[in-house]
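User: I would dearly like some help making sense of a protein record. I have put the entry right below:
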Amino acid sequence: MEENTGHKAKDNKAIEARAYAYHLMGLNAPEIGKLLNVSPRTVQRYIKRERVNNPLPKKTKLQAAELYRQGYSYRQIAGIIGRGRTTVYNYLKELQQVSKQ
């Protein structure tokens, strides 16, 4: 019987880090999955976990607001800051609510 030495967890952390690095380079989940030999859904989970563990600073939200003020679309802002259109919408909505208070 083999003893579990915890190497698998270390390997998974390394794969997660590589998946997120590929994501930041602009690859999508299916492309990353093929490179790392994991499913696209697993890649999506890795990316989500990384975002939760390392949220964007408020500076990024303010950058999104400034870009919007300059006339950029949600899609363009999302591409610049590396987040989805819905996330950009939520950032701007959140900042708008804070400014009303």
